[in-house]
Design a protein that fits this description.
5 domains; binds 2-(butylsulfanyl)adenosine; Helix Hairpins; D-amino Acid Aminotransferase, Chain A, domain 1; globular
Length: 668
Amino acid sequence: MSKKRHEELKKLISHHNHLYHSLDRPEISDYEFDQLFQELLKLEAENPDLERADSPSRRVGGEVLDSFQKMNHRKPMLSLSNTYSPDEIREFDERVRKFLRTEKPVEYFCEPKFDGLALELVYEQGRLTHAITRGDGTTGEDVLSNVITIPTIPLVLHNPKPPKLLEVRGEVLIFKKDFLAINEAQQEAGAQTFANPRNAAAGSVRQLDSKIAASRPLRFLAYALGEVDGVEFKSQEEAEETLYQWGLPVAREHKKKQLRQIRTGADEIVEYYHWIESVRHELPFDIDGVVIKVNSFRLQDDLGLVARSPRWAAAAKYAPEQGETVIEAIQVQVGRTGALTPVAIMRPVKVGGVTITNATLHNQEEIDRKDVRVGDTVVIQRAGDVIPEVVRVVTEKRPAKSKPFHMPENCPVCGEKTEKPEEEVVTRCVNPFCPAILKESLKHFAARRAMNIDKVGDKIIEAFVDAGLIKSFSDFYRLKKSDVLELERQGEKSADNIIASIEKSKKTTLARLIFALGIRFVGEQTAKSLADHFGSLEKFLSASDEDLVSIPDIGPKVASSITHWLAQKRLVKEARALLDLGVQFEKPKRAEGGKLSGLSFVVTGTLPVKRDEAHDLIEAHGGKLLSSVSSKLNYLVVGEEAGSKLEKAEKLGVKILDWDGLKALIET
Ligand code: IVH
């Protein structure tokens, strides 16, 4: 019995993983997904002999290694020859035709050149057994413990029956939007931010602690084969299509147009090169060019290699979007955790259509590595298409008397001595009363994802601190309308709004409050785990180090940061004061006795609102969401382009509603 349920759960969870991570089209709520996952973990804990090679439970990470095993590639991982212009692309095509002694146009398979980290996945009898970094092309490192945490990489290949051996090559990436989110989270946790998605991906894949890799939104896109035994392909196109069928992610569509295309002859590949360049910034991931491959594997064999590059493929790169400008000053900013960040203030310059005026220089180590100085002319670019970064100094243009930059010994805001522990890269202000730290902490406290005091923006918080009206979190809840009116440019109406918004923020959840406290390394997710575990603020405030490390999601570093925070009486008192001033916790929403209570729902197809919104609406009225259609289901809510679920529901005679029907059910 448990075996059958286990097989069912593995399939169900993998299916929802795929919908969520690959298709961006979840069909169940996060809550429901968690329930399934917990059930799986429990089942596996109770039945050690269940088959877990293909179990999604392996994806949470947990293995910590001393080092990675070195491993040889069965076939060397080659590099590509680069071209940089339409003329050079034409020359590549000419070389190919000359070698093949043909006048006829050649068929090419074209796809974007992903800017990540090359990786080889080894599947033996359909099971993922190794994941080897490129290394020097001959020998890499087996980073399997991290790679199994990448949700879109199948642990076991799907049907059609996979071959005895399949080596798949591709690129590990972080999508642009995910990159911005991790950097935000890193910043909030007081940890180092990454310069670009490529670095973030590479850094994550090389973590010895697989939990860290598991926490990073890594992706994989396949584009080539290594050694293969037990199957034959005629062309690149056929190979990639089959990889996709086996469940491996490949580049697909952009705005309903296939990114991977067959193009015949030089004109068509040049046209492809221009097309991708024009949509480059809209793609969800960074690319640095396109790769053009002779499609036929027979012709690829005929063409062979020159040195370490195939004669049958070329990278056609885009000129990086860079600009040159002058650093006018290096300003040092103080963050919420007291971290000092040097920021280059530059003469405004346009790069890729956006005017850039400043760029973070990260820390002293980075500044030393690039030797960036005030007055320097620098080359800058937008990392991950978004964040401006200093690429290098044009030393020939350096002014004669320039001096290396050093982080200040005193905090630029409060003037107290800064600290930089030997083993860290970050210089910090450790004065708990530093106004900069206070301002940043208050901004975090009031932020949308924390206490959500929506009418109190950064400028107002700064004004409150400067006026001496707010010195701590709890002071928000001591403010009176007359206090707000003391600030410049605050009228009656906006003062009312501010007070109302503060009042409204008192109704929150324990998780939000814990997150709002701004404890180092405690991001939103950790705050949720803490809230779930302790259930009350008081229990959390009196937690011991042992309590904390016993929580599955919390490692020693986070635990020690929390213990350190809890040891500061002033901070704990401040947290308790919030409750005295009326902050209270709502139970996570689940309406009892609502219009939909006792009824179950599945939502499918495209509705006039976001899927999440529909789910929230159903749950808010007491309805229960299920993941799949069965005869026990009460209602299937359908939008446009509903597929197999609708068919199944019709077969089983499940009641079907459209969006208006659902609303009518709630409103009548
Ligand atoms: S095909 C020669 N296709 O580019 C091996 N490579 O400079 C055939 N890359 O190491 C590679 N996107 O890391 C191929 N769509 C793509 C690619 C791609 C990125 C990388 C890959 C390779 C490097 C060669």
